[in-house]
Amino acid sequence: MFVRRLIFLGIILLILSLAVIPASASDLGILIIYKYHDLNQNNLMDNGEALLSGWVFDLYKDGNLIASGTTDTNGFLAFSGLSAGNYTVCEAQQVGWINTGSLSASGCVTVMVDAPMPGANTVAIPLNDNKNTSIEIDFMSHVNNTWTYQVSELTGRDLGYWMADLGSCLGHLISSSPPAIVETGKNAPMFGLKWEVDEEFTSGQFSFTLDADYPADVMQVLVKAGNKTNTGEILGPICDTFAPTILYVGNYQLPQILVTVENIDATLDYYYEWSLDKSADSASVVVPATVHYTINVTRSASASTAYMHANYDICVTNNTGAAIPVGYRIGATTYVNGVSYGGGGQGSSSALNMGKTCFPFGSGISANQAWGSSTSFAFEGFFDFDSSDPVDFTGEMTAFTPIIDPIPQNATETVVDSLYCPPGFSCTNSSPGSWTVSGNDTLNYEVAIVASGACPASGTLSNQVHIFGTLHNAMGATNVDLTCP
Q1: Among 158, 282, 313, 455, which has the minimal tally of Cβ within 10 Å of its Cβ?
Q2: What are the residues facing 424 on neighbouring strands?
Q3: Global pTM?
Q4: Is residue 402 pLDDT above 60, yes or no?
Q5: CB 31 within 8 A of CB 89
Q6: What angle do CA 235, 240, 245 make, to 5 degrees?
Q7: What sign for the dihedral angle of Cα 226, 228, 233, 238?
Q8: Over the stretch 208-243, which tens digit does the pLDDT of each residue have?
Q9: With 0-12 CB in 10 A as exposed, 13-18 as middle and 19+ as buried, what is 223?
Q10: CATH class of 271-302+410-483
């Protein structure tokens, strides 16, 4: 707010200075430019934002260059002596800066400048009566502070009086010739000077003198003949002060090196967990006997792992003003839910030219995340001028959450059963081999046991089942005691 008050005060002082220095030209339009560093890029000149010197602006009127100027140490530039109308202001772009909204992409903007607009030198005013009366007023001269007019009867009735509306100049009147009546009453047809003439009048000169040499604009005049009046416009003085047109132009300075991560193409894989539960219908049998087994297979989403693989571009915009020679390094750090999982970079094989250059990269990472959860991955690009130096520039983290179409892994698995038959017994499995499962399942089979000769006193039938999964191995085991009769 303090900055705005200072600027406002400067504008007031400028206007006051123009008001007390009489102008002899009609071109009094002023265009003021304030150039500032728009740090927060909101297209507003806020308190604390620096004013910028050394910025060049060109001023065009009707497509023609009419003036150029450079902002001073206060970021100030003024174009004066302008006629009213539209002007195009163009800024000379500087490397490493971007405009924050005042100007178009080409660095130009059209503004309207207010200034006096001189009226015509001659006006013929008809009275619209039955005598076809017409009175002509001609502007004759403007010498120093005196304005002179010729008034003539053209046709019809005699002129009774004529008036000049001096507007704001009435307060600056010094004299008139011949002496005029100053009309300011509420019943006056016009505020200003009134010259009455007699019946002998056909043509004559009238003048008035002001306290300074004011610029030309449009002045209203009035004539009366008989009982008819009418008005017209002619060139005359204006004593009002015209407010300058003010243009605030904000620019934001880019980092010398701008690093971005773009064009991310990522896949995300999730894994299943498997579990087994095996049981027998009896814990001990007398042979010969048959034991019935049940295997319950359970598949669930992994509670701990997701694997991400991404291809992307690390783009580096060089705003340093020159190509960067070979020796720099470019890379990226990967983040999972805001936690760094490290990264890597690559050296350079060619110079980095001015402007934007993109380099293809790829990353793969396993993270302990719940299957189907909102896992956030992010990449932060970096740039080093020298591969042996610390990181010079890092970009903003580019985050993404690739959970829309997760690709499940180990969706099917193989269940393998192994049987240990003790010495002296013969064991036959009704479903030898393995089973393929794709989800929750129940497997049933049986084992027939007989003595293979003289029946031993006892033994233990062991039976184990396995899933050798991609992520987790699962196993279930059951023992059955065997005895002879």
Answers
A1: 282
A2: none
A3: 0.46
A4: no
A5: yes
A6: 105
A7: positive
A8: 999 999 888 899 999 999 999 999 999 999 888 778
A9: buried
A10: mainly beta
